Amino acid sequence: MSNLSGKTALVTGASRGIGRASALALARQGAQVLVHYGRAAGEAESVVAEIRKAGGRAEALSADLAKPDAPHKLAKDVRAIVGERLDILVANAGISKAAKIEDTTIEDFDNLFAVNVRAPFFLVQQLLPILGQGGSVIFVSSVVAHAVVGPLYAYAATKGAVDTLVKYFAASLGERGIRVNAVAPGVVDTDMSSFTKTEAGRNTAMSLQALKRIAGPDDIADVIAFLASDEARWITGDIVRVDGGSKL
Ligand code: NAD
Questions:
Q1: Which atom of ligand 1 is nearest to the CA of 144?
Q2: What is the largest CA-CA distance in the chain?
Q3: Which of 32, 57, 152, 246 has its CA 20 to 30 A from that of 103?
Q4: How many domains does the chain have?
């Protein structure tokens, strides 16, 4: 895989799960990684320590992405560290909530859209001045945006919105040499996924997949690192399914 040395990357929600694995994967390729977190300062610092121990460069920085002005604050903090050039943005931070139509509250709906859609939208907007030629923006969508999997109505709608943003951002940022893509994972073994917590859940997940094991964060992070790399230079506006063949 390409050498990302000399490149700068911001990964949101990088203290655990897919974000953590992505931060480590980008650092292994040589990128300087900004490890964003919401509240888990200790976990983010341990990701930074792991990267530095392996000889890489990393810094932790926080912002509660449920707050309207958080992307603006985060972008300012990013510029204070990397200066005028960010090469890779992995907009990974997200929340989920399973609820039937009848049980979905306005508060849950608004929170889901605030963190999963509003925050990445305005983060891209605020980082535009320092994203340039060769830049790569990677969103994290989900299989639930294109297939019905359980009572995830509002959450699935946020990922549908993400898929739409990928197309619009890719179309408008292409002339500046910036690529915009998303990965769409299936079930992944992280804190977020209720499927992976019980044997019955794992069996259900595997029954949806062609490949019969449960994905780990690295399965997704490796594709994120690929999309960030020069090998993916001709891929933009795409939503790459990384789901072991889910719901074929
Ligand atoms: P996770 O819960 O382990 O990680 C989510 C990350 O987002 C955490 O680091 C968390 O701190 C951060 N975050 C959440 N709310 C935040 C806020 N208000 N401010 C700042 N940070 C916040 O789960 P994960 O599975 O690693 O999720 C990463 C992404 O992958 C999400 O966008 C999720 O929707 C997507 N995804 C996950 C699965 C799965 O099965 N786990 C499947 C498809 C897509």
A1: 43
A2: 51
A3: 246
A4: 1
